[in-house]
Design brief:
This protein has eight helices and six strands; from the N terminus they run E-H-E-H-H-H-E-H-H-E-H-E-E-H. The protein has about 200 residues and is an alpha/beta fold. It is globular, with a radius of gyration of 16 Å. The termini are close together. Bound molecules: flavin mononucleotide. The site of flavin mononucleotide has 19 residues, from helix 1 and strand 4. Flavin mononucleotide binds next to helix 1 and strand 4.
């Protein structure tokens, strides 16, 4: 049973969450978990002005995903930073190249799930996750979120990401925050939850 974690990250927050998602998925017996990043679409000089080049070196070793790889997975968990309350353009461009898969119904019945990161607490985590789900539904994915069985979702003692729609982190307006233990726990839970459902569907 193959679980693909496909992400885009500019500054590393989504990457850290992707690692936790993969860790959780790997706890399910028989799960083969692979991390992939979607192609960068911004020119290097723009990335430099955004202060992203150094941050992106940390996950440059992660292979770039091809659309064909999606067809070979049983479950795909997508990670994207929020851009104006939606997924980032890099992820949109990658998904817009999956028309051939859609035409063949190649992703129908696979488990799909989404996690995200925003700068601010109310900067659009839920809108990013829910609007991403629309694309997954067009492809015929069985959409899975982060159920309240993850108890950390009840945590009101600290500022934290995480909603029934998926795991998330709050990066801070200068990217100064790193995913908290509660946010990482949500990501691990989601990864494990998706992989368990995929295992049941595969069996
Ligand atoms: C063009 C652009 C639009 C953004 N829009 C939002 C937004 O709507 N809400 C928000 O809270 N953060 C927004 N951000 C901040 C990013 O979501 C934040 O940098 C990201 O979550 C950090 O994740 P990363 O380290 O994986 O790149 C935006 C950033 C950029 C560059």
């Amino acid at each position: 049973m193959k679980v693909l974690v496909v992400f885009y990250s500019t500054y590393g927050h989504v990457y850290k969450m992707a690692e936790a998602i993969a860790e959780g998925a790997g706890e399910v017996g028989g799960a083969e978990v692979e991390l992939r990043r979607v192609p960068e679409t911004l020119p290097e000089d723009v990335l430099e002005k955004m202060g992203a080049l150094a941050a992106q070196k940390v996950f440059a070793h992660i292979p770039v995903c091809t659309v064909e790889e999606l067809a070979n997975a049983d479950a795909i968990i997508f990670g994207t930073p929020t851009r104006f309350g939606n997924m980032c353009g890099q992820m949109r461009q990658f998904l817009d190249a999956t028309g051939q898969l859609w035409a063949k119904g190649a992703l129908v019945g696979k488990v799909g799930s989404v996690f995200t990161s925003t700068a601010t607490q109310h900067g659009g985590q839920e809108s990013t996750l829910l609007t991403f789900h629309v694309t997954l539904l067009h492809h015929g994915f069985v959409v899975v979120g982060l159920p309240y069985a993850f108890q950390g979702q009840m945590n009101n003692d600290e500022i934290t990401g995480g909603s029934p729609y998926g795991a998330s982190t709050i990066a801070g307006t200068q990217g100064e925050r790193t995913p908290t233990e509660n946010e990482l726990a949500g990501a691990r839970f989601q990864g494990k939850h998706v992989a368990s459902i995929a295992a049941k569907l595969a069996g």
